[in-house]
Amino acid sequence: MRKLILFKEFLKNKCKSSIQLLKRRTLGVCAVMDEVEEPKPDQEILEGRAKVRTSGKVFYNPVQEFNRDLSIIAIATFAKLLRQERNAKNKQISDEDNLVVDIRSPGIKYDDGLCILEALSATGLRSIRYAKEIPGINNIIANDISKEAVNDINNNIALNNVENLVTSSHNDATMLMYQHRREKQFDVIDLDPYGCPSIFLDSAVQSIKKGGLLLVTATDMAVLAGNSPETCYVKYGAISLKMKCCHEMAIRILLQCIEAHANRYSRYIEPILCVSADFYIRVFVRVHSGAAKCKNTTSKLSHVYHCTGCDGFELQPLGMRKPHQKNNNLVKFCLPTGPPVTRNCQQCGSPYHIGGPIWTAPIHSPDFVKQVLEAAPPYLGTFKRIRGILSMVLEELVDVPLYYTLDRLSNTIKVENPSMLTIRSAILNAGYQVSYTHTHKNSIKTNAPAHVIWDIMRCWEKLHPTSQKSIANNKVATTILEKSPEKEYSFELHPAANPASKQKGLVRFQQNPLRFWGPGSRAQAMVGQNPMLKSHKNQGKRKRTDDSESLE
Fold it and tell me: With respect to CATH, is domain 400-504 assigned 3.30.56.70?
């Protein structure tokens, strides 16, 4: 009996030692968690042209600086575009006068300027930066449901001397927007919630002006990326899938959700810029009105057939548009036939999962993105990253939804991984288009059909044979490699294989901005020595044992 007790004690101590060692390796430091300083209240935060102080009980995330920087340039570009459109519609001034009107300064109130709502303002930093860095503003409402947050907002408005432009509001965000459905609508609405934004969309699409700009952030990437398809359907009205292109699919799920809310009120959206960055996605869409134009929605949405073996995919549109037989100026709406696939994948023989619907129309406006890129001021803290990502966005194929990844293609058939230049050259030499996407460094976005992609991989495997031992029990790989390619594909280097963004050495893909970075915790000011500490402490909390919790 005594030996059993000693053995149990030995295992307990051994377990504690292992957990302590694992924690040190995870943290990358020798200090224990209790030795890290807690966030300091009333610490001054400098970002862009603004400075704010937080009470320590209000949410602030330094990693979101890229989000705020990009939003500032996008809204400033939109403001200029909106003035040009209104002037052209009114036809009250000449083109020469139009150039003079566009020269405006930040910090000054303009009667015909933008009316902006930041529905979930927290510290007020975003609204204050808008006031001090975006020219041509009439007023900004910085709203929050938390009284403590509103106190911080008021203090920070006074600290930055922007009382002429920014007004605080202590209200429920949805109720505030519903109050502006009929009158005093907003030119710009910014929704940057903690988690899913869907509960705010119904009121947002009603309270924004025709042609207004809606900015929406979603941080619940686990739901959107396929970890919980049933939850995704509840929140967004679409089934998410576990795919390598999950980040772009997340953007397209969010867009269809916004479109669905807008269509209920005879409105529709026009995405002009959508990005996936860090732990969130961010979309910039214009909201237009027109019941007739809403009929086009079904042709912009598709279901996704995802192969469970080779990770291939096919799209099934919800609707189609065809030219009218008797009048070329009219369009006929009809239903497509389907499905677009057989019961099992023709490449590997595996069954399909069905997801969606997702937005399959373009998610960027190249003209708008180009203007945003040209307008980016060098003083921004994330200027280099913005320039790199927007340059990649401009290189993306506009009308090609979703993408493959090189590592997944190679791993499927257990073959030596070709270089990205090699595989891109093969696709270009075959007469198809190909591009990267900013959402994944190994992405292959192409209009080449799936059988061409796999024929190229089969040709590559002939040059670099797969070990038969590695695929002996792999039905997917053997099924793919049993088929012969329809023709031989050339891997000779193509002149257009290396994109301009790579040649210029731009910062094209995201890097971790901070150790233990992430979405953080609700209503937590993340400042101090370790601003991401609370987020790290929450990681894996459901899997911890009592011993591991006691070590904290």
Answer: yes
Residue 376: exposed, middle, or buried by beta-carbon count in 10 A (0-12, 13-18, 19+)?
buried
23-27, 30-34, 189-193, 477-481: range with lowest mean pLDDT? 30-34
Q: What is the pLDDT of residues 454-509, one digit of tens each?
A: 999 999 999 999 998 989 899 999 999 999 999 999 999 999 999 999 898 888 76
Domain boundaries in the chain? 43-92+103-394, 400-504
Pairing between strand 50-53 and 44-47?
Answer: antiparallel
Amino acid at 485: P
Angstrom distance (rounded) from CA 231 to CA 154: 37
Which one of 3.40.50.150, 3.40.50.300, 2.102.10.10, 3.30.70.360 gives the CATH number of domain 43-92+103-394? 3.40.50.150
Percent of the chain with pLDDT over 70: 82
The answer to whether residues 439 and 459 touch, using CB atoms and an 8 Å cutoff, is no
* Token code pair at residue 87: 């002037």
How far apart (Å, rounded) are the C-alpha atoms in residues 509 and 112? Answer: 39
What's the pLDDT tens digit per position in 438-455? Answer: 999 999 999 999 999 999
The contacts found for 178-182 with CB under 8 angstroms, 24 or more apart, are: 178/203, 178/206, 178/207, 179/207, 180/117, 180/207, 181/206, 181/207
Whole-number Å distance between alpha carbons of 532 and 552: 16
The distance in angstroms from the start CA to the end CA of the chain is: 32
- State the residue for tokens 């890097």: 511
Three-state DSSP class for residue 454:
helix
pTM (whole model) above 0.90? no
